[in-house]
Amino acid sequence: MKQLVRIGRAFYAIALFVYGCQQIYFGTFRDVFFSVYQNHLPFLNVFAWLFGLYLIVTSTLLVVSGAGKKAALLLGAVWLSLLLGTHMTYELISEPNKLYHLGLWTAPLKELALAGGAFVVAYSFEIPLTGKLMALEKIMPYGNLFFLYTITSFGISHIIYAEFLANTVPDWMANHLFWVNVTGIALTASGIAIILGIRVRIIALLLSLMIFLWFWLVHVPGALSNPVANRGNLLASAFDALAYSGVALLIGLTMKQQKWVEDIERWR
């Protein structure tokens, strides 16, 4: 069990390492991390390099039991700050398109999932915490809801944009549209079930396995075909999948029941 928990953390940490290397290589922020407002930043490449270095250092700390929990909590706060400070302000104030188009929210939802994933990683460490970061521990048990909200939204997106996403299914698989819709249903059902605290362990483990298979069958071939196009978006998306697989694995292994469900039962 402990070895699987370490693997879940490692998946998330590997993704962070790749993100960090991309930040340094391209000298700009990935649009998932920072909205288009980044184009107005002075010394953008310097900020991007520093953030990349931060992600690389954090990825190392996440696999160290002594510092991993603090690093994960701080990272969760950083992701949330960037989400609220850049993505939400852009979508609510500057976005020229209608906000009800779910496709416009892909980047913010990915950052929300990364924030939730960081809190899930922190939750997987059983060591007690002291100091200023203790305030973030109150958010930590609910962090998985951020991740699951993204999973559910992406499931709905697969159904809404099925014809567009059919092109992402490997050529050797028959009936692309069928698989996209099945994926959408599986993501939506998994997200809702885990949010409601229904068979959390088995559903989360199956979700982790499904996303891990996508990583190898869909994302890795796409990333290898063109790893630097569009600021390495295909490569980053592949490691998004690996991170999500690790987060789902940790939810299945470390969370017996949703904290918000426990709170409601205690209030009754």
Please describe what this structure looks like.
- The chain is an all-alpha fold and 268 residues long.
- It has one domain (2-267).
- 72% of the residues lie in helices and 0% in strands.
- Helix 8 (200-225) runs antiparallel to helix 9.
- The longest helix is centred in the N-terminal third of the chain and has 30 residues, at 65-94.
- The radius of gyration is 18 Å and the shape is globular.
- The model has no long low-confidence stretch (mean pLDDT 91).
- This is DoxX family protein.
- Keywords: Membrane, Transmembrane, Transmembrane helix.
Q: Could you outline the blueprint of secondary structure elements for this entry?
A:
Elements: H1 2-26, H2 44-61, H3 65-94, H4 106-123, H5 143-160, H6 162-165, H7 176-195, H8 200-225, H9 229-254, H10 259-267
Organism: Spirosoma arboris
Protein name: DoxX family protein
Transmembrane segments: 7-26, 46-64, 71-90, 102-125, 146-166, 178-196, 203-222, 234-253
